[in-house]
Structures are given as C-alpha cells and as structure tokens.
Specification:
alpha+beta; 5 helices
Amino acid sequence: MIKGTLCSLRHLQAADLATYIALVNDLPSRGAFFSPQLKSPEALRRDFMQTGFVTEDSELFIIEDEHQAMIGSITHFKSRTAASREIGYRLFDPQRNGRGYTSEATRLLVDYLFQAYPYHRLELLMDPLNIASERIAQKCGFTQEGLLRQAFFIQGVMRDAKIYSLLRPEWQARRATPHRPD
C-alpha cells in the first residue's frame, strides 16, 4: 500500500471486485471526458483472476480515502518507448472532484514509479477541455508538450489530446525543494 495524507493506493483484491466492476461501469460518473465503452463484468473478472490487473504492460491501483472507501482508480501502462509510462486516473464519484484526491494519487504514483523502476519519462494525456485534469498535471510538475490531433474517439466524436510529461531529473529537482508549489 502507498499511503498519502488524503488517500492511499493499493492493488485490487478479490473482495473488492464486485464493487470495482459496478463503479468502473457506472456511465453517469464518467463525465464528458471518458469513453462510454463498457467492459463486461465477466471479462473484468477473468482479467482479474488471470493477472490481478498487474502485468508488465500495466498496473492498476485503487484510490482509497482516509476511511478506506474505494473512490477511484489510477493506473500506469506501456507508452511509446520502454523508458516511458503513461498514467491514467479516474474518480468514481464526481462530487469528490476538486478535493485533492487525484493530485495526491498522481504524486504518490509518480514517486512510486521513479523510485521502483528505471522509467525516465511519465506522460499524462487529456482532452484540451478537461481543465481539472490539466490542473492536476501542472500541480504535479508535468510540462505541456503539445497536442495530439484527433487521437481519441470519445462520446461519438474524434477528440484531440494534450500531452504532458515529467522527466526523472525534473521529478528529482522537485523532490529536492522543501515545498512543492501547487
């Protein structure tokens, strides 16, 4: 388990599976920036039984609040090069947005990835209209690099994606300063 002040990250356990499936497939909680594509409960159960949602290509963590309630998920997965990983996150309850959970979960995962693996580059991709996600990237020290034109099919249309990255030396410099600007 990776512990923070507001939240903790942990791997999904078998006892969590039914709750996780219900939350991840809840369409109204997805908002405008997530695909409405569902994954069948049977496929999710099978994937969990085979891998626990942890493979060389990806690793899923549950975000828990201070009361151990499952409030979201955060994952890292294979990117374009062996030296990089992409991070994706989602809170299950939109009323929890803006309270710092996702920023802290992202910081915790970034620290974990740079401390445990030789990755040199972490990436976040987001819809250009997703101001909340962009703010998380900025708060966590990521730098905007550019725009991937029409990169994702979401809500029936092709959408652009902003790309942000954080390099290991930038992360090390942030950790060396006593206060992280937010």
